[in-house]
Amino acid sequence: MRLKRKARSSNRPRRYISVQKKFYFSHILAAVWMIVSIVLSIPWVQDLGLLFTLPAALFIVIGISYIPGYMNAFMISSLLFDRQPKVKDQDPSEPITILVACYNEEAGVADTLRYIATQDYQGDIHVIVIDNNSSDRTAAVALESGESLGLSLRVIHESKPGKNHALNSALPHVHTELMITLDADTLLHKSALRYLVARYVSSPSDVCAVAGAVLVRNSRGKFLARIQEWDYFLGIASIKRLQGLFQGTLVAQGAFSLYRTQSVIEVEGWPDAIGEDIVLTWRFLGKGWKVYFEPLAVAFTDVPEGLHHFFRQRSRWARGMIEALKVVKPWQQPSPYTRYLTFCNLFMPYLDVIYTLVWLPGLILVFFGYYWIVGIATLLVLPLTFCVNFILYAYQRSVFRRLDLRIRKNATGFFAYVLLYQIIMSPVSVWGYLQEAFKVNRVWK
Questions:
Q1: Every domain of the chain and the residues it spans
Q2: Rounded to two decimals, what is the model's pTM?
Q3: How far apart are CA 353 and CA 360, in angstroms?
């Protein structure tokens, strides 16, 4: 009798919590966290006030502690509520077109096409490779590979440099309802297309794009790549999960995302921006359309291994965010969820500037015996940081298990990511903001 009761109770469906309730509950928990932080920080604020005046002390502490704490508490509580709905069709068969923009990708485009050819997707796959004024044999290698792999592939040429020009030149050649953009150095998991399309066909009619999960391919490379493995695996993926939960993924990244073709046409294609995928996504959201995220649709990309290319890439991302904020203001977003998420981006320049110009000098002062900004109490944040990353790791591990993937052992990269990554990222982001403010010439590569 007890066994029957237990079986019956285990079959009960989980209680459904609406997106709106998750949003409110998460804000309440984040507010409680911030109130506790404010109370505990009163002595710190008073001491800083004696050095810099009370308004300056508040300006510093708000940027270092209150706002980041609120955002992190909101993210963690939201992710604990997250229960992604099951897809209605595990094996969709809608025809799709994949756009691969290439600039001097002779060495890698064949591998990218090979992984497309080995997908377990049931529908027709059409591939358009756009040779964006390459000086090597990119186009020839793509044609040869497509023929040997039996792909439905064509190559078109676009002489005007820029990824947006390359993708827009392919748009008139897309004759399917759905299209996917894929970077030429990005390799797909064998079920990536199936999961990506399945999420779209299972979504409401106002969903116009689904972002895939992009992870690091060259994580056995240099130290910087090993750090970025955790950024993509924990940081970026978790932020996208949060945004997807509230139906407003802020970047359907060009590296691997699905778009409804007509929606791209209605917003006049990819914009002339250094963050063309960011601005495109915000234009979708500004029209009241939704953008989802599918964590099981995994692709692996090469990340910069040298500081020069890393600085250039991440400053470009920061600059792209500013471009998007100019195109669609946060208060113009029709969805309250997207409004909040984009408002968070509005605070990022302030937070990065405070971190770069105040927290980092404060960290240096510690080595000379001055604990004005960074003190012993700062170390208490570390257990919380590791706890947060453990929660994120547990979820990502479950995703990998479903995909029959194994997480590489990279403890050194993990500790460096937790302890050092923000020290690198904030100054790089500030440099990107300055580039946009002074209209420095754009550099894509």
A1: 14-81
A2: 0.91
A3: 10
